[in-house]
Design goal:
Structural class: mainly beta
Strand content: over 45%
Number of helices: 1
Helix content: under 10%
Largest sheet: 4 strands, antiparallel
Shape: globular
Oligomer: single chain
Distance between the termini: 36 Å
Order of helices and strands: EEEHEEEEEEEEE
């Protein structure tokens, strides 16, 4: 039996999902067996926008489509989530065992790898498709390099 319980006091914190992505920078050439997109986001820019001294990351939700082979979301050199053998079906939020506090002198790095070789092409109506140039898009045959950071901060902050 499920029910909703309402709190008698307002929450101290709120959680927002912050996307890490660069859609215009994703270009995967036909036949490329290890195409990579790396995105670096200075935390100082996020803090300036949110008007906060620091962020607390509680979760990471990586996202690619079917050409994706590996995805890593990290802060500086510390991996938050690393999936070395990506599967399109593993899209979910991964909650950190210990939330990570990040400051303005740090960077969030998202690294996505793809296999666009002839051997890794999908079957459509029983026919293996030839490799083609792939860019950011909503369709399964398009690709994405995206990671949503679940960040916790005081409820009094209005981003």
């Amino acid at each position: 039996k499920a029910y909703i319980e309402l709190a008698t006091t307002p929450p101290k914190n709120q959680v927002r999902l912050l996307p890490v992505a660069n859609p215009s920078g994703l270009k995967i050439k036909a036949g490329d067996k290890d195409a990579t997109q790396t995105i670096l986001i200075p935390v100082s820019e996020v803090l300036k926008y949110l008007k906060l001294p620091e962020l607390t990351i509680i979760s990471v939700a990586p996202h690619m489509h079917v050409l994706g082979t590996q995805i890593i979301t990290s802060v500086d050199s510390q991996a938050l989530v690393e999936i070395p053998r990506w599967s399109f079906h593993w899209q979910q939020s991964y909650f950190l065992q210990t939330p990570m506090v990040v400051k303005g002198n740090q960077s969030v790095i998202l690294e996505c790898h793809y296999d666009n070789s002839e051997a890794n092409q999908p079957m459509v109506n029983g026919v293996k498709q030839p490799p083609r140039d792939v860019a950011w898009g909503e369709g399964t045959r398009d690709e994405m390099c995206l990671s949503f950071l679940g960040v916790r901060f005081p409820a009094s902050v209005t981003p």
